[in-house]
Amino acid sequence: MVLAEPESLMLSSQMVGMLLLSRAVADVGPALADEILEEGRQRPWQRSII
Questions:
Q1: Is residue 10 included in any domain, yes or no?
Q2: What are the tens digits of pLDDT across the range 26-39?
Q3: What pLDDT shows up at residue 24?
Q4: In a domain, 28, yes or no
Q5: What is the span of the domain harbouring residue 22?
Q6: Which residues contact 36 (CB under 8 A, 6 or more apart)?
């Protein structure tokens, strides 16, 4: 599947954000970090409202 540029940018941004957020909370809440990554894996195309 070839993605259009806006969709590619959106997906890349979501993946990077998910990884950064997960790493930021990993020391304090390992379970939360895992949950963040798991949610991102399950719904990679969900558009955010923000």
A1: no
A2: 999 999 999 999 98
A3: 95
A4: yes
A5: 16-41
A6: 18, 21, 22, 25
